[in-house]
Specification:
single chain, 164 residues, mainly alpha, Ferritin, 6 helices, elongated
Amino acid sequence: MKSNSPHLFLKLVIAIVVSELAGVIGSIFTVSAIPTWYAGLTKPAVNPPSWLFGPVWITLYALMGIAAFFVWKYHFEEKGKVKRKALGVFCLQLILNVAWSIIFFGLHSPMWACVGILALWFAILWTMVLFYKISKPAMYLLLPYILWVSFAAYLNYAILLLNK
């Protein structure tokens, strides 16, 4: 980093904190539902243990924050319009991420959560396309996220089918 290292470090911290905050908000709806409503659902055989989701999501939110930082650190003169759009879509996918937790765990609605996770998946893909135009490493940091959300979409759909 150059002479503005403290400024860049602050941007990195903000990007990670904002991303992790989405997880914290989502967990408000998730944590109380896991031992009650979620525990009573029939799940597919490949469903991971509940304890695994927390560490995976913490890691994914950190990677998302780092990816956002890689895009945010560019000066607005450099690719400014694409950068604003990319960060806007990034924020949209964070909102959809939180919304999925609210719909699935808070409202106990696997059906509407399927719709929500599909919208989230496309928003992540759109984010990746826009990030790629600015920073290829930023796009690559989102690969584990879209893969995990793809798996979560399968789990969501399987739970919907198994609990009609």
